[in-house]
């Protein structure tokens, strides 16, 4: 005999007539957690969180095993699997899953036109409910993830069933049920609309109009909002039955009282209005859920004059035939004269609108085939269609994508809904709410409505509630306005594969993603699914990035919803991230290997042969840098995602792979954040070598910033942790720090020891680095040439460029300007082909010095100004100071003394702030010369 499980009400386990429901509360919670995801592995950590909440006892894991053992005595199918437990039961034996299956099946029947079958099937599905979902189950996590969506689906299914009953002429039978529904959910507009229609159908027109007035009073009083289109349309239909039909229909809803902004799209609509006698115009307003598409259409319609009338229809999941029936009645067609078939209704509709100059608003269209039969073909007609999709296949239509508000518009809308005075009193909190709502008009309207209903709340209080990502979607709900519900409609309408991709993307916190990363999380090619999600308005195509990849982004609230669905349907994000991590790490590692040919630091790269080196040209290196630049935001966010998921090995490796790119591009904030996360992960997993590599990277950052003592300390801490082959490389970094500190003997001792170690180990890249460092310290031309030769053998144009610029500086100091120019032009050409902006700026400073030595101050000025712009763009203060020195010298040669004084004063300030004594001395000497020429005393 089969065991039946119930969670739609109090937890229940029944076998025939026997009640096997567990008694202890924690046993019931554990069983509910397993029943809600039958056949899926639930980790021990997940179950502990759902049974005990955020503060489980220290003994939670062994106690959980005891609970599982007890449950097995009454419930078969509980299996222990790696990492957790699994309940092996048919989902149809659990009433919640049976309910969801029946709702889906009967929606298909409804869409196929089998109205009576669908109504009876939904009635059977709703009969499975015995009370509130998970009644008596003490788990906030389960209630939020499952009870709330189930209750929402229950209400939606009830409203759909009632709508079908009304369509079948059963309005009188459902009025009592609807009265109870609006009493328990007074702000649910759809239920009020159905009550109005049912009462009208039952011949109780005065009660129907009274129900509308009561609904409007509640909505205005509680939310400060006028009724929406569905409720207004129900009211209009009842009125139409007691008033003579007007010759000119005027169905567009009243304008939105607190409409904000959108001047650009409104101007586009106004400019698109066809003149009388011209071809009809069809406009599509599309964008993600909650961007206010309907509000824009209604507001635009309110300002347009169409003598032939205005039609309005809410499409949603309705068939074109059903919508045409309403439109035909609006145009004066008697109910008995409406044809039965879609083709006949379309022909009649076109005949009735012919000769009229109409405005038709079609709200919430799902696809092109739903819209085509509803487009008026008469001259001078305008159709405004709103949709989450751009409806690209709709012939002769023009589209406009609505995005989110900026901060100023968001605050303005919040003020219009919540009150100008309250928002002016807390401008910073208002701006925080705007950011946390992501500029989404629906979210802002809900936030404003919550404030309007709670005059005791401060804006700071609401902002604090919205800060917690885990509860943000719960907070953005007021009556039947809910961001989660709006997103859920789009999610449920997706095919299985697109739903899977969307929720798995919820494992990522990055604001945008390329198709390769989506493929990694999906486990199969994702290009078409990404396009489908963009068509559905859940993602947005951003176009091609710098590396030629199509990128997609999404609203932050959509990301939170996707993360919710992932946790509810598949569990924590760690499994998705672990599966995708291999591809992400491999791509980052290969990009690093191109940036730093033959560098052994990862333990996975090796020196190239001469043939391989010849194959590695600057185009491939530049391609790698472009890919890293395009993926920087994604990869930085992924390091944090991996760390939060406890994937420590992947975290520190990805952090390590990225740091040379951050150094090359001057991305110091990202550099610091990623290294700190990587260090934390390496230490947590006890990986000494990983910790050493990241300490070394952090030391590189400090050296770049001029924090030399901190850099030296980090390198000394890294030395005892590093593996043997990495010790010379770490010591080489220490030598660079000592050289910057002015401790040349110690620096050169490091370089000499490193050169010997690299040579003995056959590490050619290390040998090139050591030769360059030693040659730079000793100003030894032969050592620099030796370094240059090795870099060329390795096929490393970045190394070659760096040494070429070193040699140019050396030749310049030795009064050999023509040789200096030749070397500087070679180095500058290489870094420009590679696209390395900061090294290019450093090369320009050198070219400025060469130009000064050759008596070309105009050329020197141009090079120094170009370098200064780049350094300031990247917030590189030391580089900017060097560029200012070169600029000041050029200005002095041009006899522009006042400008030279300004430039050298800026350089003095920067060097002083950086603690660069050598640079400060050089700048002060030039400042004295500038002051002398100006006739001032220093």
Based on the structure, what is the oligomeric state of the protein chains? single chain
What is the CATH topology descriptor of the largest domain?
A: Arc Repressor Mutant, subunit A
Radius of gyration: 35 Å
DSSP strand (E) fraction?
5-15%
Instruction: Give the CATH superfamily of the largest domain.
Output: Winged helix-like DNA-binding domain superfamily/Winged helix DNA-binding domain
The SS-based structural class is alpha/beta
Mean pLDDT: 86
| Unreliable stretches | 600-616
Please give the CATH architecture of the largest domain. Orthogonal Bundle
InterPro entries: AfsR-DnrI-RedD_regulator, Apaf_helical, BTAD, OmpR/PhoB-type_DNA-bd, P-loop_NTPase, Sig_transdc_resp-reg_C-effctor, TPR-like_helical_dom_sf, TPR_rpt
Family: Belongs to the AfsR/DnrI/RedD regulatory family.
Organism: Streptosporangium vulgare
DNA-binding region: 1-89
Descriptive labels:
alpha/beta; globular; 938 residues; Rossmann fold; 44 helices; Serine Threonine Protein Phosphatase 5, Tetratricopeptide repeat; three-stranded antiparallel beta sheet; 16 strands
SSE layout and pairings?
Layout: E1 3-6, E2 12-15, E3 18-19, H1 25-35, E4 42-43, H2 44-52, H3 60-72, E5 78-81, E6 84-87, H4 95-111, H5 115-126, H6 140-167, H7 171-184, H8 189-201, H9 205-223, H10 229-242, H11 263-272, E7 281-286, H12 293-302, E8 310-314, H13 320-330, H14 342-353, E9 359-365, H15 368-371, E10 382-387, E11 397-401, H16 407-418, H17 420-425, H18 427-436, H19 441-453, H20 459-467, H21 469-475, E12 477-478, E13 481-482, H22 483-492, H23 496-505, E14 512-514, H24 515-522, H25 527-535, E15 540-544, E16 550-553, H26 556-569, H27 574-595, H28 610-615, H29 618-644, H30 648-665, H31 668-684, H32 688-705, H33 708-718, H34 727-740, H35 744-761, H36 764-778, H37 781-794, H38 797-813, H39 817-834, H40 837-853, H41 857-873, H42 877-893, H43 897-914, H44 917-934
Parallel strand pairs: 7-10, 7-11, 8-9, 9-10
Antiparallel strand pairs: 1-2, 2-3, 4-6, 5-6, 12-13, 14-16, 15-16
Pfam family, one: Trans_reg_C
Domain OmpR/PhoB-type: 1-89
Organism: Streptosporangium vulgare
């Amino acid at each position: 005999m089969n065991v039946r499980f119930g969670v739609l009400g109090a937890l229940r386990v029944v076998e025939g007539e026997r009640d096997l429901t567990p008694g202890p509360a924690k046993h019931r919670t554990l069983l509910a957690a397993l029943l809600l995801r039958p056949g899926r592995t639930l980790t021990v950590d997940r179950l502990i969180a759902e049974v005990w909440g955020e503060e489980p006892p220290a003994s939670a894991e062994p106690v959980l095993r005891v609970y599982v053992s007890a449950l097995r005595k009454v419930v078969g199918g509980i299996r222990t699997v790696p990492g957790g437990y699994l309940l092996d039961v048919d989902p149809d034996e659990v009433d919640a899953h049976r309910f969801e299956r029946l709702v889906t099946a009967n929606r298909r029947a409804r869409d196929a036109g089998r109205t009576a079958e669908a109504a009876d099937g939904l009635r059977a599905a709703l009969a499975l409910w015995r009370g509130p979902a998970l009644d008596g189950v003490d788990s906030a996590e389960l209630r939020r993830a499952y009870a709330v969506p189930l209750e929402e689906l229950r209400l939606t299914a009830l409203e759909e069933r009632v709508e079908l009953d009304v369509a079948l002429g059963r309005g009188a039978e459902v009025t009592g049920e609807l009265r109870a529904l609006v009493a328990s959910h007074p702000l649910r507009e759809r239920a009020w609309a159905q009550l109005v229609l049912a009462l009208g159908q039952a011949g109780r027109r005065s009660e129907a109009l009274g129900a509308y007035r009561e609904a409007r009073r509640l909505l205005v009083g509680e939310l400060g909002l006028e009724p929406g289109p569905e409720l207004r349309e129900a009211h209009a239909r009842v009125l139409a039955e007691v008033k003579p039909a007007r010759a000119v229909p005027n169905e567009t809803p009243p304008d939105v009282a607190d409409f904000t902004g959108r001047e650009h799209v409104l101007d586009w609509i106004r400019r698109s209005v066809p003149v009388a006698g011209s071809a009809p115009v069809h406009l599509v307003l599309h964008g993600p859920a909650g961007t206010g598409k309907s509000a824009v259409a209604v507001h635009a319609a309110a300002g347009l004059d169409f003598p032939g009338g205005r039609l309005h229809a809410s499409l949603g999941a309705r068939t074109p035939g059903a919508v045409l029936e309403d439109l035909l009645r609006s145009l004066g067609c008697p109910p008995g004269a409406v044809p039965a078939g879609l083709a006949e209704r379309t022909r009649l509709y076109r005949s009735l609108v012919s000769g009229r100059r109409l405005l038709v608003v079609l709200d919430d269209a799902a696809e092109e085939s739903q819209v085509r039969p509803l487009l008026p073909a008469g001259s001078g007609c305008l159709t405004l269609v709103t949709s989450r999709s751009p409806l690209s296949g709709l012939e002769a239509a023009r589209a406009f994508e609505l995005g989110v508000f900026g901060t100023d518009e968001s605050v303005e809308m919040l003020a219009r809904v919540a009150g100008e005075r309250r928002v002016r009193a807390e401008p910073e909190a208002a701006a925080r709410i705007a950011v946390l709502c992501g500029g989404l008009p629906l979210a802002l309207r809900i936030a404003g409505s919550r404030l309007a209903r709670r005059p005791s709340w401060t804006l700071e209080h609401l902002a604090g509630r919205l800060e917690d990502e885990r509860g943000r979607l719960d907070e953005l709900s007021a009556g039947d306005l809910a961001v989660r519900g709006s997103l859920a409609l789009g999610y449920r309408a997706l095919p299985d594969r697109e739903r899977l991709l969307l929720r798995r993307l919820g494992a990522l916190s990055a604001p945008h993603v390329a198709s390769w990363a989506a493929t990694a999380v999906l486990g199969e090619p994702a290009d078409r699914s990404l396009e489908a999600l963009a068509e559905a308005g859940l993602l947005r195509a951003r176009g091609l990035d710098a590396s030629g990849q199509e990128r997609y982004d999404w609203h932050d609230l959509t990301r939170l919803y996707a993360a919710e669905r992932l946790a509810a349907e598949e569990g924590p994000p760690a499994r998705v991230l672990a599966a995708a991590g291999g591809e992400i790490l491999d791509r980052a590692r290969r990009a690093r290997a191109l940036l730093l040919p033959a560098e052994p630091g990862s333990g996975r790269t090796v020196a190239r042969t001469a043939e391989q080196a010849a194959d590695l040209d600057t185009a491939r290196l530049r391609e790698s840098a472009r890919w890293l630049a395009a993926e920087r935001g994604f990869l930085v966010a992924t390091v944090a995602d991996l760390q939060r998921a406890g994937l420590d090995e992947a975290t520190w490796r990805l952090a390590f792979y990225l740091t040379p790119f951050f150094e090359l591009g001057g991305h110091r904030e990202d550099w610091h954040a990623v290294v700190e996360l990587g260090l934390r992960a390496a230490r947590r997993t006890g990986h000494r070598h990983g910790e050493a590599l990241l300490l070394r990277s952090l030391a590189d950052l400090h050296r770049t910033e001029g924090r030399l003592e901190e850099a030296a300390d980090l390198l000394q801490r890294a030395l005892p942790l590093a593996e043997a082959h990495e010790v010379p490389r770490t010591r080489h970094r220490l030598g660079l720090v000592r050289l910057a500190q002015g401790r040349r003997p110690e620096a050169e001792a490091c370089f000499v020891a490193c050169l010997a170690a690299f040579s003995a180990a056959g590490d050619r890249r290390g040998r090139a680095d050591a030769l360059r460092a030693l040659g730079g310290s000793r100003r030894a031309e032969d050592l620099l040439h030796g370094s240059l030769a090795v870099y060329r053998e390795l096929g490393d144009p970045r190394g070659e460029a760096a040494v070429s610029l070193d040699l140019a500086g050396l030749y310049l100091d030795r009064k050999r300007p023509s040789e200096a120019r030749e070397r500087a032009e070679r180095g500058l050409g290489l870094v420009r082909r590679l696209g390395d902006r900061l090294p290019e700026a450093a090369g320009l400073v050198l070219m400025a010095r060469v130009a000064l030595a050759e008596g070309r101050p105009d050329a020197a000025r141009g090079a120094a100004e170009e370098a200064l712009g780049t350094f300031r763009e990247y917030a590189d203060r030391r580089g900017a100071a060097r560029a200012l020195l070169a600029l000041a010298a050029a200005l002095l040669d041009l006899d522009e003394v006042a400008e030279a004084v300004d430039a050298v004063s800026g350089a003095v300030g920067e060097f002083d702030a950086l603690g660069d004594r050598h640079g400060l001395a050089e700048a002060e000497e030039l400042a004295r010369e500038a002051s002398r020429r100006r006739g001032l005393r220093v």
